[in-house]
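sorry for the late reply, my laptop died twice this morning and i had to redo everyting from scratch. anyway the thing you sent over, i finally got around to it. pasting the sequence first so we're on the same page, its 408 residues, then the predicted structure underneath. double check i copied it right bc i was rushing
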Amino acid sequence: MEQEDQDTSYFTMADLLKQQEEREETTLAVLGGSDEQNCTYSKGYVDRQAVYACLTCVPEARGIESKRCGICLACAMQCHEGHEMLELYTKRKFRCDCGGKRMPDVKCKLEPRKEEENTLNRYNQNFSGMYCICHRPSPDPENDVPDVMVQCVICEDWYHTRHLGLDDPKKGEECDEVICADCMEANPFLKNYVGKIEELNKNSLNDTVQVDVTGLDESNATVTEPDADETGPSEPKQRRLDDSKAAATEETPKDKPAVLDICTMPPLCADSEKAYKKGASVWTDGWRKYLCQCKTCIELYKKHSVEYLLNEKDTLRYYEDLGKQRLGPQVSAYEQGMQMLRQFDQVTQVDFLTEFNIMKVRLREFLDQFVANQQVVTPDDVNAFFAKLYSERRESRSAGGRPPHFCR
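ok and here's the structure:
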């Protein structure tokens, strides 16, 4: 007799609690560094904060670009409770629009007087509920292909990893930061660093490893000026470091240290395996500190409005760490659940996990009906399901209990 294939997939209580822990970490990343009590308008254009868009108050934002607007965390919780909200994760240099010029029909409960227009705010398609180069909502009701979305550190739009143009989309999930293809073309000088950043990726920025990202050393340093096309020096003008030191010594008073303006932007990588290829680029945490900070490059960053790349407070990692410090040590739901489960004796633990598995199977069967009939699950449906499950459980106990269903 042929043995039927068995479904070996299963979902344990530990898996459920682990997922909850990951959700908590995501929430911490978004909310940890933001103020949930006070509107941030008076603080001006905050370096980074959680931002939301309210489609209940401004439904026109779905289709009209000029109607896009965003609000801070506190206003989302206290002025727009129960509204249809878009969670935009974090945005840089953003000032709250709640009750302001872009939302004249809204009265801000926290800071009613907002007379100045937020002219420096930047509103991408996310404020209309669209994302990526596919310009689709997330989640997309017409596309159920599983994919991870990552945020470009320059335009701050969100992209499906499969749409980044990477040879291996997994790189987009595993890297610390991503710069989309459009932003790489708009800031061509970044291409010069791609080959060197690959070296950083391989070394994982281990503090014990010395990585020469500039191609320069004390014995053969050069001063380089980016070409007019801003793609970096293909044939750089060179000057020995000792010559620049001598010049600085002649021009600088003896009581002040000499300031050398040495451009360390590397030339475009000639190695075809490491050189920039068309599409998005992935970057390892800490890569920004290797960007050249000579006068010429500083002006280049200003011209392209990307000076924030030199600001450590701009990174999401800094924002997350700030939130963790503000909230202090936290015990995750995963840790709490496992601690609670370990307090019971073995028989109780088995009973608990058995009931969990019963609920899991029944819930999956319940939801499969809606999938098959293409119906939307409502809160009333869910409440009815758990009420029925609770009723059956009581009846089973009244009848003397039931044998264990299964436990994995």
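Residues 131-201+270-330 form one domain.
thats about all i looked at so far, will dig more tmrw
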